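For practice. Supply one:
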Amino acid sequence: MELEPLTLTGSQWEIDRSDFDRELPNLLKLIEDSDFVALDFEFSGVGGDPARGQVDTNRKPTLAERYKELCESAETYRIMQMGICPVQWRPNAPREPKYVSRPFNFFVAPHVEKRLFRYDRAYLFSATAIDFHLKNGFDFNKLFSRGCLYLGHQEEAHIKGLKRQRDEADKIEIETKEEDAPMLEEVRKQIVTWIKNLDTDLFGFLNIQRAAGYNGYQRRIIRQLICREFPDYTGVWYEQHLQVLPLNEDREKNVVQRREDDFQKVLKVQRGVRHLIDKIMELKKPLIGHNLFTDLVYMHKMFIGDPPEDINDFRKYLQQNFGLIVDTKFLAIHWGETNTSPASSSLAELGYRLSNLIYPHIDDFPVNTEQNHVAGYDAWCTARGFVKLSTALYFVGSVDPLPPAETAPCLDARKKEIAVALTTRPRQVGYGRLVDIELEDKRKLRIPCWSSNFWKVFGGRICVNGTVEGEFTL
């Protein structure tokens, strides 16, 4: 199925809380029909608390040390903006073969539905992050007033545990306070009188209320009074009163089911943008990011749960639950002369350098202005960089990447796979090769097939600058 434009009530590419539930089926369908998904996040802070102590600045930290620091950082700070860009190859597009992109931007708010047992979150910012985002036009008011919701798997399990505790607690009778005896006696008298006259009652139910109302504790002890002393009747609480009526098993089952359905509906709404991450994981769609080691750690913390303590367990989780993960930073530092200038592999600089590579073509960003450090725009820039870089590296070749520097035994087989794949790499040729292919058939100018040995060399290799190893390998 070809990707088609979405019809949004707001702007073409930004989706806020009021739009999200309506657009969710379309978003999931776009991910399902895509060839790959590019992802980008903006954070409320990155880096450990200086009070916790830092790695010795006179030496580079190891990858494991950097991972631990990021896990601590993700415990403190949050993802506050998320960008995704599903992309699909369309070889028979009307004008020319191209990649169709659909970038979207979401502010991610910390709000939690009150009905979820008053579960709450702390939300912290670093002063450096605030200053950086303000300089780049970040709208903090939109974050809190219109940001989309989220709920991690670990958080959801915790909330479901709270519900089980409440359901079990509701079955246990609690002792009543002496001062509530008159109230209970009044309720008892009303019910007894009503039952005696039930044959002549026109409505078949009794409403009990009082001017002062009833608090949660009082509602509970009245309910247990009815269950204990009037087992053939039940009580249904409304906002201001209690309704007593004859027990009906089918109705009681429906009430229980309706409560469960309502709870599940609230959970579905609260999951919010996590639905998109879940879909990517479910389908194991190729996931593309730029310099994305931090993104992966924060993504795990926010949408899944506490990252594993050991970096090799984190590696194993990613391998088992995601498809191919590609870092465009790793592609960029092996493209042409870029590796002589690390700064030129930044996402913004990379965009300028790729502008002279016309094919393969990818849709322009839907807004005709740069939106640097806006997650949705950066996700699109990442998708564009991925399409151009992987095509160029595949057809033109490059200097072979060095083998991974990590020494973990779990990577021995992966290192051998990379070494074997490198023997199949074509020799490096000039960029005129791209022109030759363009003249022959533009449809051939596209990213390498996912089963290609190219991805055994360039896939699953994530730059982690400033560490001893310099790379996290999957």
Summary: Confidence is low (pLDDT under 50) at residues 5-11, 338-343.
